[in-house]
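Name: Lipoprotein
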Amino acid sequence: MRYPPRLFSLVHPVLPTLATGALTILLLAGCVPLAPVGPGRAAVYVRIGPPPPPYEVVLPRPYAGAVWIPGRWIWSGRWQWRGGYWARPPYPHARWAPGRWERHGEDRWFYHRGHWHR
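Structure predicted for Lipoprotein:
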């Protein structure tokens, strides 16, 4: 039996390759971590105030323009000290305003994050 000639193929030879590529891109797009949109200002309230800061040894400045970021207490179920470090300012003449714990009422402490400013 003889079939009539096809005017076009139903599946072009390139289509499976394109479909596989598109599927791969879609699957990999789900693996890319996204940066937070905002500065991430989650409020942290603690019922126990932080201990006094320990004595911290400031190492010599590693390069010109480096700014010392002092250590701070963080709360993760208990107080933990995070030591200070040298950092490169994000723009010329930037200054670091260190974070601080502030008391609110009888038994609430709120953390104000450190930040760079002009």
